């Protein structure tokens, strides 16, 4: 079978798999059509989640059961929630496989080596996960910037005589997204009967940030022992604002180090691809000679250690 025919066949199969896993089921389509017909009242859409619960892993029953038992899928589901992504676990896996096959075939057409072409394919398969990590970090930073204002609003609501649940609802209505959606989720969980402790701990699980843990600790300790929660929240908000200011300064001071880390991480792969296109025989010895394979393995290990060292240097805890 010719490489072009193999590429076309795999491309067709991957797109067919993508359409198969992402299309809504007959039950989903019927439910959505029925909801449109009867015009069910929905929660006001302020950027948060709707009251309709989506399938956690996949809309296909047998695939949903399979993914529930697969290792690592629950961690992936947690990553999707933290990133605020509407994707399902099956969507991420399908996109990862699609990226692998596409890049693998393109690399095979360029390098004409099946095993060697799988290396960039494997690297490309991690792109959906990298995208989710970037999305999660950006969302966390936005929440960190909004959290002091939210805590101040809670303190003012408590001074005005509102209960903690009413203060949480007020934050969900007044604060900008994405933090407002998280507080609305806390209020909705309590409204449906979940204890305050569980709802607050769920918030800390969805936003695993030190500032959110401070807020959760303050609320839970006050609930157990009593005290002036408004005063505690005022001091907590002041600490949060100072931490946000310090984090902003540190991002400026470490910008050069982060840029250096990105350049050093990607430059070897870019240079390898360019040299392979210019003179393929020049680098083929790295994969045909046993000593060359050892050199490649040692180089990859040293690169990983170097990236971890750079990340450790510039990742200053506040």
Question: What labels would you give this structure?
Answer:
Receptor-associated Protein, single chain, 15 helices, 318 residues
Give your account of this protein's structure.
By secondary structure, the protein is an all-alpha fold. It has three domains: 1-91, no CATH class; 135-253, Up-down Bundle (Receptor-associated Protein); 255-318. The chain is built from 15 helices and no strands. The protein has helices at residues 3-22, 26-38, 61-69, 73-83, 89-111, 114-125, 127-159, 164-174, 179-191, 196-206, 210-225, 229-253, 255-278, 280-288, 290-314. The termini are far apart.
Shape: elongated
Write down the Rg: 25 Å
Structural class: mainly alpha
Quaternary state reads: single chain
Helix content: over 70%
Q: What is the CATH C-level name of the largest domain?
A: Mainly Alpha
Give a short summary of the structure:
The chain folds into three domains: 1-91, no CATH class; 135-253, Receptor-associated Protein; 255-318.
SSE topology:
Blueprint: H1 3-22, H2 26-38, H3 61-69, H4 73-83, H5 89-111, H6 114-125, H7 127-159, H8 164-174, H9 179-191, H10 196-206, H11 210-225, H12 229-253, H13 255-278, H14 280-288, H15 290-314
